[in-house]
Fold this sequence. Notes:
The chain is of the alpha/beta class.
Amino acid sequence: MSSPNSGATxxxxxxxxxxxxxxxxxxxxTACAHRCELDxxxxxxxxxxxxxxxxxxxxxxxxxxxxxxxxPGTVDPVEKKPLYHFKPxxxxxxxxxxxxxxxxxxxxxxxxxFSDPEEIExxxxxxxxxxxxxxxxxxxxxxxxxxEPTIYAEYVRDxxxxxxxxxxxxxxxTNGYFTEEFLDEVGPHIDAMNIDVKGFREAPHRKFMxxxxxxxxxxxxRVQARDIHLEVTYLVIPDLTDDPEELQEFTNWVADIDTxxxxxxxxxxxxxxxxxxxxxxxxxxxxxxxxxxxxxLEYIYVGNIRSQEFNSTYCxxxxxxxxxxxxxxxxxxxDPSESCSCGREVDIVP
Length: 350
Ligand code: SF4
Ligand SMILES: [Zn+2]
């Protein structure tokens, strides 16, 4: 049974499989694009993977950030991830854990993302308990989100596999800073991903996120090429990622990959170490939306604002409403398993 687990528990963890042996006791972690080379006793940038006597171990396997009582996880509408073109109107049980492989100065989940696994209370939830919790709470799927799921790849893989065995779908909300090896190992068990792109310029990305941008862009292309439903979120931060040219380059880049990838422009709110600027003005978000229309993108949304106009889904051919959304409430107007009245295929996974 799941039980509260104080941060003082010894974190023995499990053997990591996303690893490559180097000379002597040194290992390379191959889960994320940092590709940390770790000597015995060293932890990676993410602080949850450690070389213990020459073996890479995931210290937080089965340890999630959650209230200690009640069924594990948080039930959310799938729209909240955000996933707008995947199983609309269903509920997804969400899990997150300690730490991260990025260090975003505006992180809204900084209470977990900037904590070592020993610094916060974590709860033991096995993959099977996660699945049982989803079933008990009537959720249709499981998501790993809140902090970066790449860093606990082996737990995600086992949880997603268990979820599929029980007929649940699976989702990841990720910064996309993962490797091809991660995608080979975990990807086959994942049905949907939302990849967060935080700007389209290398230098500020390195400075404000603590990691390079290119691996995230590579992941967007790789995921789209696989059998995984993909949506992309772009965080619009005033004076950091909102330059009109930058937005134009980003939207052209997505359109070159596939004009049907849903793109969510997300509103920045001051948080953590970035409180020197206001929330993104609505006009800036509207301008981003316009830029995406000009680039030829077909499904564009503006998140974190309550606007039906910018959050509903319309047929790109004839304008017919497919899904009407207010907040996270969605009403399916056009059955995704049928075609639009104009004949266009409805680009929504039913
Ligand atoms: S997941 Fe990334 S940050 Fe963590 S140890 Fe592996 S390569 Fe390093
Ligand atoms: Zn139509």
